[in-house]
Amino acid sequence: MRIAQVSPLIESVPPRRYGGTERVVAYLTEELIEQGHDVTLFASGDSLTRARLVSPCARALRAGSGFHDPLPHLTLMLEQVLSEAYRFDVIHFHTECVHFPLSRRLRLPQLTTLHGRLDLPGLKGLYREFRDMPLVSISDDQREPLSWAHWLGTVHHGLPEALYPFHPEPGKYLAFLGRISPEKGVVQAIHIAEALGLPLRIAAKLGTPDRAYFEAEVEPLLRRGPGAEFIGEIGEDEKADFLGQAMALLFPIDWPEPFGLVMIEALACGTPVIAFRRGAVPEILKHGLTGFIVDDLDGAIRAGARLSCLDRYQCRLEFERRFSARRMAQDYVMLYQELLSHERPVEWGVAP
């Protein structure tokens, strides 16, 4: 099958550091090639891929200086996609809704994976207008605010099985990995670790919009003692040791998390997860097997005292069974085939 993958441009594919969507696009692209498909990747020019790479910009936008507006670069990329659309059996967009007006009128054989939250103001009107656009969710919970949209299916994220080695023995600290922001729960993670008397290592991206929150809410807790350590944003090559040597990953989120890629990264290392019951968490974790799903701080503290009950080998087995890149790519190929089996032949030009 001839497949186009269309990525956001904020980060390279894969990203050098933080970047969930571009990371998933990278894993999917490489696995589709491994399974024998002909893949073209539309992404920033500093992306690393075995696919044919088409780029509207030389570098990921976050890597450049003076980045403000991604729209000019996205517009250029859409022109590149449209000019080559005849090459592909299916075009897989990961760019939210920006392509919808063109996709509708050109009858592109396409689908769109939505990677973000869907409960935000204004989205209902947008997706009601574009109810004909074929969509894929990354969890069943993600699609609930727009349950009536044109969903082809849900495909959970997956990782290459060899990406993270299994760590059979737990380390002596708790881990927090992600982004510094109120909804990610870093303050709650510090409180949990303090109550358990365990060190906490915080590897997180700190962006400009969240710096005031960090200075007002997080830094004072870090200064209280040596228990919590902020080590900043880490790269892919550092994640395996960071997660694998942890006793557990803390994931005390306070928002409807659409998936939570870091949870399956931890499971790949054999590291269990203590997570708040929000968003997709109950779809990803199995309570009492791959971690503990809790409702509040007290529940998380009680769960932390029971970590020795969990088998790290079972965490790794669940990852291999449910969250491999191979399974993810196979799920998408089935959706591609289903889409094409119902698709009318492409007629170039504006639809009536």
TrEMBL record:
Residues 18-124 form the Glycosyltransferase subfamily 4-like N-terminal domain. Residues 168-296 form the Glycosyl transferase family domain. Coiled coil: none annotated. It holds the Pfam family Glyco_transf_4. The keyword Transmembrane helix does not apply. One of its GO terms (molecular function) is glycosyltransferase activity. The keyword Zinc does not apply. Keywords: Transferase. Transmembrane segments: none annotated. PANTHER family: SULFOQUINOVOSYL TRANSFERASE SQD2 (PTHR45947:SF3). This is Glycosyl transferase. It comes from Melittangium boletus DSM 14713.
